[in-house]
Amino acid sequence: xxxxxxxxxxxxxxxILLSSVGLAILLYYKAGSFSRGERWLLGGIRFLLVxxxxxxxxxxxxxxxxEEQEKPILLWLQDASASVVLHKxxxxxxxxxxxxxSYYQELLTEKFQVVPMPFADGLxxxxxxxxxxxxxxxxxxxxxxxxxxxxxxxAVLLSDGIYxxxxxxxxxxxxxSAPLYPLMLGDSVQxxxxxxSALRHNDEAFLENEFAVNLxxxxxxxxxxxxxxxxxxxxxxxxxxxxxxxxKRDQSFNYQFFIKPEAAGLxxxxxxxxxxxxxxxxxxxxxxxxxxxxNRQIRVAVIGKGPHPDVYAIKAALTGSQRFKVTDxxxxxxxxxxxxxxxxxxxxxxxxxxxxxxxxxGKAFWLLNGPNTAQEAIRAFLQQPVxxxxxxxxxxxxxxxxxxxIPDEINALTRSAAPLLSPFGKLxxxxxxxxxxYKQVGNVVTADPLWYYHQEGKRKTTVTxxxxxxxxxxxxxxxxxxxxxxxxxxxxxxxxxxLQENEERFSVLTKRKHRSGEMIPIKAHxxxxxxxxxxxxxxxxxxTNEENESFTYGFSKEGKAxxxxxxxxxxxxxxxxxxAELGEERxxxxxxxxxxxxxxxxxxxxxxxxxxxxxxxxxxxxxxxxLEVKTxxxxxxxxxxxxxxxxxxxxxxxxxxxxxxxFLLFTLAGLEWVLRxxxxxx
Length: 682
Known about the structure:
The structure is a single chain. The two termini are 44 Å apart. The strands form seven sheets. The chain has a nine-stranded mixed beta sheet with strand order 16-15-17-18-23-22-21-19-20, with helices on both faces. A five-stranded parallel beta sheet has the order 4-3-5-6-33, with helices on both faces. The chain is of the alpha/beta class. α1 packs antiparallel against α2 (36-57), α2 packs antiparallel against α16 and α11 (470-480) packs across α12 (484-498). It is built from 16 helices and 34 strands.
């Protein structure tokens, strides 16, 4: 239905009409060179032309409602992890994916909007088949989140069904908003294999304590065979040798052994299973791990009015490492002995007396402000007003945070997790504070620091304006099947508070572990004599590998800090020596990090066709092999469930843009000129 609307009052029609009549009469009423009939004809054309021109000056608009058919969306989820192209027929699979995928996607565009979505540990920008991990659950959840409330008709999942991160994808498939159509890749045959299937240990250990290592070994199709397990340190010394007798076709073994660290620093250990003749895959017969052996134990005291799930979550995150010794002091003010023997304090909703005692100690602390906190103590500490009313508040990561490294996946975790309970309104912070998270209200990310770090003099402090961090830990397990992300965040916070690096005025920041094949970011900070960040220094880094080969790199300036991005390095432990020259002053920082080759994708190459069929069944779809891809395309094109959506859109355009009216004006003007010429008078 079309409707004519005007941007000016229709009362202007009357003067336009009178002007058109007047101009026609003025030109042709007394034009003696034309006959009466010619004057009427020419005058009529001139009247119509002038009237239409005046009419279009009123800016008439044509308003129409148009119905459009929007095709349903087809998500094309392509597993880009390494295991997809490591099985026996990997070359044929890779060639098919390279040469045929776009062809079948093109066929499906007849009915669908096809959206390619490669994934490995999460969604990727391209398909490279070098992903070190596979997280099917996260891929489905992210795809659903990206196309929430849109017309997703179906999802094709090209995968071998092998996952080594995240929760069981069957749960994510059950709640997926569209039917899944797995296109099963890989080889589902179980070949004879002896492998290290799981390795569990702490990342940190204390020099004076033994640490435990738990090892799971699986044997398939090797009944009656014998193998040998060896554990060696980085110098090649054998620390453990164990004989394994396999008595069943499918058998599992579990070993726990304890190692006494020989020296402080980053130490590497290697495990190996002797290869058996019947095995096809020998990549999974070896594993290695590293531990950071510390000779300084960090003592942390948790202080508050009483137990809380946050306290449990923080203690659980810290006690996983021997580097931290955690005690709690509920309902009482810490005495001189407690204040003296602890490195730092975690204040969870403290009383005024508890907070004053810690402030007087001069030591570092982490304050979590909640409804039960003594608000007068908070206001006195911040020297700014803070509301004593609390509201649910989402946290949004400050992507330019640079005090220390945190896992990139923290951003996705906090976006998915339940909100914290934080003070209502504006959140104050001292000048020079470094926000880790900002407060988000609804869809608006504010400039108020929800969680920040600050240093005044020699004391470091962290303030979290909210409680219920335990929900983040639960969400981490729901998304990833572990607490690793949450624990890494808590460990990084406590480690930052315990270190005295800024007192040395030069700090170097990088993760302790990096994956092979990835760029390695390193940041550095230099403080001038006024304890302010300075970028006037000359900063260099000398990197030494396990063969004692050294390479020199220069840092570039990044704001008030320094940054260096190393190209991917081979597997191994690297030592670095960083120097900074600021005027006549010289600073030195030494450390090390590991580049690990992640071999999880090669550990188990048996495709999980049964899992993928169950995922299809629970979501309302159907599973297909690579030989049935044409049937998959036909079924999708014939599917009655994936239907287009009719949308009605209102389109408003100037009437003059309609070509018919433009040609009418052009024709009238031209006709008058032609007739005057024809009648012999122009």
